[in-house]
Structure formats: structure tokens, C-alpha cells
Design brief:
Blueprint: E1 3-7, H1 11-14, H2 19-28, E2 36-39, H3 44-48, E3 67-71, H4 80-87, H5 94-97, E4 105-109, E5 120-122, E6 125-126, E7 130-132, H6 139-148, H7 155-162, E8 169-171, E9 179-180, H8 191-194, E10 207-211, E11 213-214, E12 233-234, H9 237-251, E13 255-259, H10 269-276, E14 282-285, H11 290-295, H12 299-305, E15 310-316, H13 320-325, H14 332-343, E16 349-356, H15 362-382, E17 387-394, H16 412-428, E18 433-435, H17 439-450, H18 456-464, H19 477-484, H20 489-492, E19 506-507, H21 512-524, H22 544-551, H23 560-575, E20 579-585, H24 594-608, H25 612-615, E21 616-621, E22 631-642, H26 648-657, E23 661-663, E24 671-677, H27 680-693, E25 699-703, E26 706-710, H28 713-716, E27 721-727, E28 730-736, E29 750-755
Parallel strand pairs: 1-2, 1-3, 3-4, 4-7, 9-19, 10-13, 13-14, 15-16, 16-17, 17-18, 22-29
Antiparallel strand pairs: 5-6, 7-8, 11-12, 20-22, 20-23, 21-22, 24-28, 24-29, 25-26, 26-27, 27-28
Helix pairs in contact: 2-6, 4-18, 9-10, 9-24, 14-15, 15-16, 18-19
Length: about 750
């Protein structure tokens, strides 16, 4: 059974995300590593010469795989699904593939799954054979395992039978009375760290990601994370520490990114920041709630002590009225209090993110101007030099949120008056105005997630016209979509409570009447408190146990001793003095990024000593990193940083005992033996370029098929190149670490380096 994991964006755009890694881990629980492959949207250059879509690892044609698992992360990315099928020579429609017993099964999930109705041709036909709604932990393995146990010619019947057996699974062609969104019931352990890791070659090779919670306990009316991702659940600290250790050992990462909708809602946020910094060079905590910072002023200096220097505040509404409409529970006074606290700290940058609904009025803009004036006063009082950025997004109404009932604005002329007024106010306030995406991209995204029509023919037409989303929407894409599915009053008007939204059969745990009630509250500016640490607000997402857990939830705040301990830890990390280890980089890493090589070094060193994840903080290339370097493998020196100077001697002794060459400093003039393989003419040219680039004269002599580049004694004394010979298909250089390889940096040649 061969499985292809498909991402609908280029690798460069999704390398920082985890869905493909998660799906690999789920499949690897029951399949051999060699039977799992990946494919990403080819970039523009690759699309020009593409004959068929192939797996990244095996080179196998996509159409030859048995099962394709598609991850759809965001709305406009869905445009690329039919293009990927076209590149793979796989028929677009489920109905076209059913008669072909060899056609792969295609199952799609992802964070945009519950807004992915753009895949549908009809109630019984789609680009995919099945959709998956909700959290896939365990269930993905269960699906793959069920197919694996069944003869290939019975897979479609088995897949059909699994609807209702596996929560979240909707099989195209079945009659759906109700499909319940899948919720991970037990978050007592981390799924990603316990699964096999696939190590991608990328600039992100030294970064791992750890999810600390699921769902969100808040009720922002625009936010699908707070509605379709409920209930809120946390992974306990002890499990997160174990997972962090495992991730570091498995990946060789030195940076950990914490994944959570709001990291500062976690009960053990203080232990997390202090504890995880003991295993990683850098720990990045991303999104957090401003109102929690305001209510707990002791948390902000603790975060700064943990080396957090950039903060983002999701202000969302530009005025008090609009923030109430968005149910942010963030009034002007609270926001300014948080900003004042931030600017009192030693930080570099604050990003303010706002959402424009298109419903803003002149008084909202005036309120925004007053807010900017207040921000200016805080800045002048606390930190004149700090960088404050203002970013604006257009409100995307999502289908399982209260604002799904709100009218849609799908014409530029409906947006421009509001956008221009806010832009003018922002620039007059002394800030740059940044709009996160262009109008037509917004229109297509909004239409795709809110339509209840079967718009797959429009996406098919885009694929036939070679229109793909690769960082931006190509010219003519929105116009083609609108030509086939015109924007109607039915789509854009305010929706009644009984409006037939797409995927109405999906039970997300929150009744439609609750969503409509919250929409009515939003229009009246009524806000509700969170259930976290308070009373249940009756949305219906939680069972009794979850309600009790949420009501009793508290957030542990740092005390004076916690702050001092974290400061001491971070200071020790900053002052750690490296030692140097000679490493042999295997040939398989010849073309790898420097981060991939560093991750290999980290893994190798940690495996050699007990508790390596607590001993080795990070490694840095000390030989070639600062040079413009050609492709290489072989010996190199790496700077190894312990977590503190107190542990330095212990780590040095452990690595020495394990057989590594360890030095206090990199030898000033390492003796190098370099072999470069290629065609004879190419190698002679390379030898001349190397020597000319270093201004080393030579006398070329030829003897018995050899090219001997004789170097005058005067230049031999400089201890750069001592000999240079081309024989057969090998260029051999001997010299010191002063050799400059930059003349061959883009030659495509590969150097095998041995160091004394």
C-alpha cells in the first residue's frame, strides 16, 4: 500500500507547518517508511517543465499511489487541487475514477476542511472520494489500517462503510444524515512526538513544533478557531516536557515553536516557558491574549525574561463598537494598559493587527484616530524608538461562526470608502498602512468558504486555464470564477437563521441557534465572558467533564523566584562558551542546507551521550558557514554550545569519551585534502578558477594524463594551496583551511573534504 501526502502549496510556503509531518507520522504507525511519500505544488519553474506529478522521495507517478491524503490549509489554496490532479493525470471527478479499480483513493482534510465545499460538483460527486472534518489524531491511522487489511478491489466499499464508524469522515456518494466533527478526547499525550519523524532538507531543519493545547475557550464572532475547534483542551506540562525532549532527539532541532491559539491560556504557562528553555536554544511562544496580559501584569516581564522581544496584539476592531461586534472583550483602557506595560519592557517591536468588516462608519474611524493618538502618547512616554506596525485584514466570514449570517461585500466599491478612510487615518497618525491581501484574492476566498452552490466546475475551469495560486492569485482567476458563478444578492445578503449553509449535515458541536443568537448579540454590541475559570455560556461544545475542567481552570502566574530563575537560565545560555568538535558529514548531505547538516550534527552528538538534549544547546558550522561555499561533504568543525559554562567540562569529557575529536578552538590552519569529481575539461577549468580566484600563480605541466599545477615556493609559504592535480575525473587539492572555494560556489561540482 503506497500513500502520497499532498500539500496544495509549494514546499517553501508550508515548510513551517506540520500537517504533512503529522500525516506521515499517522501513516508510519502502520506502514513502512518507504511506502509513504510527499508531493507539494510545483513552483513556477517546475510547472514549466512538468510532464507528470511525482512523489518527492520515490519519484513514483502520483497516479500510481493507492491512497492520496490531501491537506487543505486555507481557502484560496483549494484552487490548486484540480491543478494537482491535472498534473498527475488523475481524472477530476470521483465519478470518473470509480470505474477504474487502479485509480487512487483521495481523502482530504485540513484546517479548511469545514469550509471546503468548493470541491463539490454535486451532493454525490467531488474532486475527492472522501472528506475528513476535525482532528485526525488516531483516526488517520485507523483509516489507513482499515484499508491495509482489505483487498485493493474492495477499498471503495470499505471506505464507504467507515462513515459513521470514524468520526469526521464523509464519503462522497453516501447519503449523509449527520457527520460528527472528530474531537480528540484524550490530550494527555502528544501525538506528533510519539510518531516517526520525516526529516526534510530545508532552512527549517533546526526548528521543531509542539502543540500545547487544542481549541479555544473564547467566542470571537469571526474566528473559526473559537467555534469549530471547541472544546478547549490542554496537554499537561509533564507530557509536553517529554515530547520536547523526544522531538529534539529525533530531529536535532535547537529551536522549539509553541503551537496554540493562545499560549498564555495554558494552566502551566510559567513552567512551560521555564522548563522548555532548558532543552532548546530558543523557544518561541507565538499567539496570546492581550486581556490576560492586562489582568496579570506579572506575566509580561516574565516573557521578556524568557527573551521574547516581539509582541503582536490582535486589536481586531478599529473602534470600541467594532471590537464589541467581533466579541474581542478588549476595551480601549485594557488595550492601552497592555501597550503601556509592553513599552515599559526591553522589547524591539509591537505589531497591531486590525480587521476591517466594511461596516465601519465615520464615528468608528474617528474613534480609531483617537486610539492612534493615545498610542502615540504611550510611545512618547515609554519608548520613542520602538517599532510599532499596523496591519489590516479584510473580514472573512467563515461558515461555522456567528458572522456567517452577516452580509458579504464582494465589490471593490463597497470596500474602498472604508479602507481609504482608515488608510488615511493610519498614515496621518504616523504609521504605515498594510493590507494583508488584495481584493480579488479576498473575494475568491470569501466566495469559496461561504457559497452553498456546487462551484467545482469553476475550479476545474481554472485548472484547465493553468491558473494556480502560488503566493498570489493570477490575473483573471476571480473574473473566470465570477463568470461561471456570478455574485448574486442571494450570496451577499444578510442570511436568515434557517439559511441552508453548505455542509449543514456536519455536527460541529455548536447548534445553529447558538451561532445565530451570537450574531444578534454582535449587532447589538453584547459580549459574553469566557467560560474559562467562570460559568458555562451554553454554546453546547463541551461535555460535563469538559465543562467542569474549564470552569475550574486557572493560569499559574510567575512569582519573583520564577522570574529570577528564568533570568538566570537565559543568562547562562547567553554566556555559554562553545568548544569545537570535528564531524564527518555523510555524502547524503552533499546538497543539504546548512541547517540540515547542523541538525544531523546535533542528533549525532546527542545520541553519543546520555541526556544529550539537556547538555547540548546548539551547534554552529565553524568551518564553512561564513564562506561562499560549493557543495561539499566530509570533515568539518562545529562549534558546540552547552547550556551553561558550568556543564561545559562535563559535555567535553563525555564527547571525548565517545570518540569525538574535541578542541578548545578550531585549529588555525587545518590541513585539507580535497577531491572534486567531474569531467576532465570541467575539472581543469575549475582548478584554474580556484587558483586564479586566490591570486595564486602556477605553472601547468602535463604528464601521463595528469595536469600538474605547480605553485612557486614563494606562494607555498603562504600555506594556502600546497598541491593541485587533475588526474582522470578527479581534481585533488591539498592545502589549509585558507582555501577559498567561492569561485566554484555555483559550479555544480562537489567537494569531498578530509581534514587533519
Amino acid at each position: 500500500m503506497k500513500v502520497l501526502i499532498m500539500r496544495l502549496s509549494p514546499f517553501r510556503d508550508v515548510v513551517k507547518s506540520t500537517p504533512h509531518q503529522f500525516l506521515y507520522g499517522e501513516c508510519a504507525r502502520v506502514l513502512p517508511d518507504g511506502d509513504i511519500d510527499f508531493v507539494f505544488l510545483p513552483n513556477a519553474a517546475e510547472r514549466e517543465r512538468l510532464s507528470t506529478l511525482r512523489g518527492l522521495r520515490t519519484g513514483l507517478e502520483a497516479s500510481k499511489f493507492d491512497l492520496i491524503l490531501v491537506s487543505n490549509s486555507y481557502a484560496v489554496e483549494l484552487v490548486n487541487l484540480p491543478s494537482m490532479l491535472r498534473y498527475a493525470h488523475i481524472p477530476y471527478r470521483h465519478s470518473q475514477r470509480v470505474p477504474d479499480a487502479s485509480a487512487p483513493l483521495i481523502v482530504m482534510g485540513g484546517s479548511n476542511a469545514m469550509a471546503s465545499q468548493g470541491v463539490l460538483y454535486s451532493a454525490d460527486d467531488a474532486f475527492v472520494d472522501a472528506l475528513y472534518f476535525g482532528e485526525g489524531e488516531g483516526n488517520t491511522t485507523r483509516l489507513v489500517s482499515a484499508l491495509l487489511k482489505t483487498p485493493r478491489n474492495q477499498w471503495r466499499q470499505v471506505l464507504s462503510s467507515l462513515e459513521g464508524e470514524i468520526d469526521g469522515l464523509m464519503v462522497v456518494g453516501n447519503s449523509h444524515t449527520s457527520v460528527r466533527k472528530a474531537i480528540l478526547p484524550d490530550t494527555s499525550h502528544d501525538w506528533l512526538s510519539t510518531a516517526r519523524q520525516y526529516l526534510f532538507d530545508s532552512p527549517e531543519a533546526t526548528t521543531a513544533r509542539l502543540q500545547i493545547s487544542y481549541g479555544c475557550p473564547y467566542f470571537c464572532t469571526f474566528c473559526f478557531e473559537g467555534w469549530e475547534r471547541k472544546p478547549y483542551r490542554e496537554v499537561p506540562y509533564e507530557e509536553l516536557e517529554r515530547a520536547a525532549r523526544q522531538l529534539k532527539r529525533a530531529t536535532g532541532s535547537d529551536t522549539l515553536e509553541i503551537t496554540s491559539f493562545n499560549f498564555n491560556t495554558h494552566h502551566d504557562v510559567v513552567r512551560l516557558m521555564g522548563g522548555l528553555n532548558k532543552f532548546f536554544f530558543r523557544v518561541n511562544f507565538m499567539s496570546q491574549r492581550a486581556d490576560i496580559l492586562a489582568a496579570h501584569p506579572e506575566l509580561l516581564p516574565f516573557e521578556v525574561a524568557g527573551d521574547k522581544r516581539q509582541f503582536t496584539i490582535g486589536v481586531e476592531g478599529i473602534s470600541e463598537r467594532m471590537r464589541a461586534y467581533f466579541h474581542k472583550n478588549l476595551d480601549r483602557q485594557t488595550f492601552l494598559k497592555v501597550l503601556d506595560q509592553m513599552l515599559s519592557q526591553n522589547i524591539r517591536e509591537v505589531k497591531l493587527f486590525f480587521i476591517l468588516s466594511g461596516l465601519e462608519e465615520d464615528e468608528d474611524v474617528a474613534d480609531f484616530q483617537r486610539l492612534l493618538e493615545s498610542i502615540k502618547k504611550v510611545r512618547e512616554k515609554r519608548n520613542r524608538g520602538i517599532r510599532i506596525l499596523c496591519s489590516f485584514g479584510l473580514l472573512v466570514r467563515m461558515p461555522f461562526t456567528p458572522l456567517r449570517y452577516a452580509p458579504l461585500l464582494l465589490r471593490e466599491e463597497l470596500w474602498e470608502p472604508v479602507v481609504e478612510k482608515v488608510k488615511r487615518a493610519t498614515e496621518q497618525g504616523g504609521y504605515e498602512f498594510r493590507l494583508t491581501y488584495p481584493y480579488k484574492e479576498y473575494f475568491l476566498s470569501q466566495a469559496l468558504v461561504m457559497t452553498n452552490q456546487h462551484v467545482a466546475p469553476a475550479l476545474e475551469a481554472m485548472a484547465d486555464a493553468a491558473l494556480v495560486y502560488d503566493g498570489s492569485l493570477p490575473e483573471g482567476a476571480w473574473e473566470l470564477f465570477e463568470e461561471l458563478f456570478p455574485v448574486t444578492e442571494d450570496l451577499t445578503r444578510e442570511k436568515p437563521e434557517d439559511w441552508p449553509f453548505a455542509y449543514g449535515f456536519v455536527d460541529c458541536g455548536i447548534p445553529s441557534k447558538v451561532l445565530y443568537s451570537r450574531y444578534a448579540d454582535a449587532k447589538e454590541g453584547r459580549q459574553h465572558s469566557t467560560c474559562m475559570g467562570g460559568n458555562c455560556q451554553g454554546c453546547g461544545a463541551c461535555d460535563q467533564r469538559q465543562r467542569e475542567t474549564l470552569a475550574s481552570h486557572t493560569i499559574s502566574m510567575p512569582g519573583m523566584m520564577d522570574g529570577r530563575a528564568l533570568e538566570t537560565l537565559m543568562k547562562a545560555k547567553a554566556q555559554a562558551k562553545p568548544f569545537f568538535v570535528k564531524m564527518e558529514i555523510p555524502e547524503q548531505y552533499t546538497t543539504a542546507y546548512k541547517e540540515t547538516k547542523a541538525a544531523y550534527v546535533m542528533r549525532t552528538l546527542m545520541q553519543a551521550i546520555n541526556q544529550g538534549e539537556e547538555a547540548i544547546m546548539t551547534v554552529r558550522d565553524a568551518g564553512f558557514d561564513s564562506l561562499e561555499m560549493m557543495r561539499w561533504w566530509g570533515d568539518n568543525w562545529y562549534a558546540v554550545y552547552p547550556f551553561s559554562n558550568d556543564r561545559r567540562g562535563e559535555v567535553v569529557r563525555a564527547l571525548g569519551k565517545a570518540g569525538f575529536a574535541v578542541c578548545e578552538t578550531v585549529p588555525a590552519q587545518n590541513f585539507l585534502q580535497v577531491e572534486i569529481v567531474g569531467e576532465r575539461e570541467q575539472l581543469d577549468k575549475a582548478a584554474r578558477r580556484l587558483l586564479d580566484g586566490m591570486h595564486i600563480p602556477y605553472i601547468l605541466g602535463k604528464n601521463e594524463g595528469k595536469s600538474l599545477y605547480g605553485i612557486p615556493p614563494k606562494f607555498l609559504k603562504k600555506h594556502i594551496v600546497e598541491s593541485c592535480i587533475v588526474q582522470g575525473n578527479v581534481l585533488r587539492l591539498e592545502g589549509t583551511s585558507k582555501i577559498q572555494f567561492s569561485p566554484l560556489a555555483h559550479s555544480g561540482l562537489v567537494a569531498h573534504i578530509k581534514q587533519a
